[in-house]
Design a protein that fits this description.
Blueprint: E1 12-13, E2 23-24, E3 46-47, E4 57-58, E5 63-67, E6 74-78, E7 83-84, E8 93-94, E9 99-100, E10 111-112, E11 117-119, E12 126-128, E13 133-134, E14 143-144, E15 149-150, E16 159-160, E17 165-167, E18 174-176, E19 181-182, E20 191-192, E21 197-198, E22 208-209, H1 210-213, E23 237-239, E24 244-246, E25 258-259, E26 269-270, E27 280-281, E28 302-303, E29 309-310, E30 314-317, E31 324-327, H2 330-356, H3 363-392, H4 395-399, H5 405-418, H6 436-461, H7 467-496, E32 501-503, E33 509-511, E34 514-518, H8 522-537, H9 541-551, H10 554-558, H11 561-567, H12 570-587, H13 589-592, H14 595-598, H15 608-620, H16 631-651, H17 657-681, H18 689-702, H19 705-724
Helix pairs in contact: 3-5, 3-15, 3-17, 5-18, 6-7, 7-15, 9-15, 11-12, 16-17, 17-19
């Protein structure tokens, strides 16, 4: 038997007396001191394992204490994902928002999610932000990028789109602005370039003004223009040298976007080519179609400068603004044949009339003489009318202006008739090649040849002394003078226009009367030389011939009228002088042969036909050399016409006052026509179509109405004057009244 009891060691206990041994503390209990009668449970939050534990311990960090419902067993387990614990924790705490944990062995802390990520709802993991969103450190959600900024996946911030870009709808990337649009920094969309601006590149930060960086004064038709080529000039302007210039005469004023090369020309105008800005008015509006293509400016059958050249298979009829190109068909050829036949028949009748004139008094010869007497009395009227239309008919060509259409048609026809320019009415080019050069040769050499024949015939008859030969000789000479009177203006125009060339801005030069002829060619040099010789023959030679013929017989022609006017009344002096002139004609048959030049004038104005001839030449031929094509040329012609009008008014040279009135009316009418030509030349701005038609009607009526009204009045007054004088003298001494 033991002498004493031994204390149970730590970790054991004995709960009864007289125990023969100690019991180990079970799991979850302990005793740290010897001699324990019980094993208390581990403190809350502590545990132990196995038996005979002398103490309890806390769960490691990241773990938590688990015990059964009876608290008979305790153990430490790792905190699940999304939770953490510190030393001695009996439970795991949930991670704060933005933090996560996912260590299978547990963790004592939650890690923050990196910027660009966010914690899942169970705090187990960090999820990346989608593109278009962002997050900072330890975020539990992602924030959408603000307008105008973008982000990629897992972004910690959003980037603001640079100028020239815009944020896509899902804010995932910055898209470049398309051409024609622009943006500033942080844009959600691109702005279209406004009207008048453009740009030419992607991701533009702005737009350029058309007027500054493309064409000065230009604009665009629409917004969002993406090329400088879309900068166009407004209607009424065209692009020239990078600037919008106001359209001029002949340019279309309603088309937008015109350039120098694509300039739209109005109907009736022409230019040398796509680079030319010298818009010229065509001689005839119908010949020029206008448009943008220089190769298609002209109507069918027309071409060349100002669309005034007839193309192959077409022949020119008329000249200047009255030119037309007729297609060479059977009818055109027939017209030429018939025309030439009629002219030959007319010439034959004239020759027959001359040869039969002085034969026996048959009914035909008496009728011929009666007709001759009537024509003789009407001679001054015919000469005045012929002279007027011969002058007026060439004004358009000389001045280089286009008269109104109705006026042009009427005057072109009448001037052709009164100038005996019948060839121009026939499509002669359909028979053989025809140009101004061939017409120049025919117009100068044919009359010259005919004149030589008449003069030769005249000289042959000079050897004969019988009355019949003398009368025929005088008739031939009168015919020769009449021929020079009728043909001189038209021949002079043909001669002088050989020197009139028009230069164009492409360096070419063509004859104004025939634009198919190159003024820079050796051929033209030859014909200019020929024309110079013809100037000496016609415009200089014929007036000089008139002067010589009249000057050497001036004493017989003056018949002492000036002296008689000092002794008696003017009318009586005129009557006596006319008688004296008739006596001189009887004495000298060579004087009678000149009657065509002086017969209608008072004896003291024996020289007046020379003045009238020079007046016509000055207004038809000489004007070609005076500031051609300018306003000054029209002004000079106007001054010359006014001077001539004053001369007619002061002298009143005709024997019959009716003829004086008619001459004054014709010259006044010419002055008014030249005033209208001046108005056309300086361009009547603001004239509408109705006013132009009225102007055309006025100008056309001006050619006839004043003559008819004033001539009728003058005729009545002259008839009354002749009645008062007892019809002692006829207005004109008829050619042929005095028989040899």
């Amino acid at each position: 038997m033991a002498e004493f009891c031994t204390a149970c060691p730590p970790g054991t206990h004995s709960s009864t007396e007289s125990s023969t041994g100690c019991s180990e503390c079970t799991v979850g209990r302990y005793t740290s001191s010897p001699g324990s009668i019980t094993c208390p449970y581990c403190q809350w939050g502590k545990y132990n394992v196995g038996a005979a534990n002398v103490g309890c311990m806390f769960c490691d960090t990241g773990k938590y204490l688990v015990f059964d419902v009876w608290d008979t067993e305790r153990e430490c387990r790792a905190c699940p994902a999304g939770k953490f614990s510190v030393l001695g924790e009996t439970i795991c705490r949930t991670c704060d928002v933005g933090f996560v944990s996912n260590n299978p062995e547990g963790t004592s802390f939650c890690e923050p999610c990196d910027a660009g990520k966010f914690s899942s709802a169970d705090a187990k993991t960090c999820l990346g932000c989608e593109a278009g969103f962002w997050s900072g450190l330890a975020s539990n959600s992602c924030t959408e990028c603000s307008d105008g900024s973008v982000s990629a996946q897992n972004s910690s911030l959003c980037s603001t789109c640079s100028a020239g870009f815009f944020a896509s709808a899902n804010k995932t990337k910055c898209e470049p602005c398309p051409v024609g649009f622009w943006s500033g920094q942080g844009a959600t969309s691109c702005t279209a370039c406004e009207v008048g601006k453009f740009n030419t590149a992607l991701n533009s930060t702005g737009c350029s003004w058309c007027t500054d960086d493309a064409v000065r004064g230009s604009t665009t038709d629409l917004a969002a223009s993406n090329s400088s080529s879309q900068c166009r000039c407004n209607a009424g302007f065209f692009e020239s040298s990078q600037s919008c210039e106001a359209v001029g005469e002949g340019m279309d004023s309603e088309t937008k976007g015109m350039t120098t090369s694509l300039l739209k020309i109005e109907k009736g105008y022409w230019r040398t080519g796509a680079a030319s800005l010298n818009i010229l008015q065509c001689q005839n509006e119908e010949h020029c179609l206008g448009g943008t293509d220089p190769n298609n400016y002209c109507a069918e059958g027309y071409g060349g400068p100002l669309c005034s050249v007839c193309m192959d298979d077409f022949s020119a009829v008329g000249a200047g603004e009255g030119l037309s190109c007729k297609k060479c068909e059977g009818s055109a050829t027939a017209t030429v044949v018939v025309g030439i036949t009629v002219l030959l028949l007319l010439f034959s009748l004239i020759v027959r009339f001359i040869l039969k004139k002085d034969k026996t008094e048959s009914r035909l010869s008496r009728a011929s003489k009666k007709l001759e007497n009537k024509l003789g009395r009407a001679e001054p009227v015919i000469k005045i009318v012929f002279a007027y239309f011969q002058v007026v008919g060439g004004l358009g060509l000389i001045f280089g202006i286009q008269f109104p259409p109705v006026y042009s048609t009427v005057i072109s026809f009448l001037s052709g008739v009164f100038s005996f320019d019948f060839i121009s009415f026939m499509p002669i080019g359909c028979i053989f090649p025809s140009s101004h050069y061939t017409l120049l040769l025919s117009y100068t050499l044919v009359p010259l040849s005919l004149s030589i024949m008449l003069v030769g015939w005249y000289n042959k008859l000079k050897k004969e002394t019988d009355e019949k030969s003398i009368s025929l000789r005088n008739t031939l000479f009168e015919l020769f003078l009449a021929l020079t009177f009728l043909l001189l203006p038209s021949i002079s125009v043909k001669v002088f226009t050989t020197f009139a060339c028009q230069e164009f801005d492409d360096g070419t030069s063509f004859l104004k009367v025939d634009f198919s002829l190159d003024c820079q060619s050796p051929e033209h040099t030859f014909y200019k030389t020929f024309a110079g010789l013809m100037v000496c023959v016609y415009p200089v030679g014929i007036p000089l011939m008139y002067f010589i013929l009249l000057f050497r017989t001036r004493q017989q022609l003056k018949a002492g009228q000036v002296k008689k006017e000092k002794e008696m009344s003017r009318d009586s002096a005129l009557e006596e002088a006319l008688k004296k002139r008739e006596e001189n004609e009887e004495k000298d048959k060579t004087v009678k042969a000149l009657s065509f030049l002086y017969d209608s004038y008072q004896p003291k104005f024996w020289w007046f036909e020379i003045f009238e001839t020079l007046r016509k030449l000055a207004l038809t031929g000489f004007l070609v050399f005076i500031a051609p094509g300018t306003t000054a040329q029209v002004v000079v012609s106007l001054v010359m016409s006014i001077v001539a009008l004053v001369v007619y008014a002061l002298t009143q040279p005709f024997v019959d006052n009716f003829n004086n009135y008619l001459a004054l009316v014709a010259n006044s009418q010419l002055v008014l026509t030249l005033v209208c030509a001046l108005a056309i030349k300086v361009n009547m701005d603001g004239v509408n179509q109705k006013d132009q038609a009225s102007f055309d009607a006025f100008l056309t009526a001006l050619q006839f109405v004043p003559v008819l009204l004033l001539s009728g009045f003058s005729f009545v007054m002259a008839k009354k004057a002749r009645k008062d004088q007892g019809n002692k003298h006829s207005s004109v001494v008829p050619v042929g009244d005095v028989e040899s």
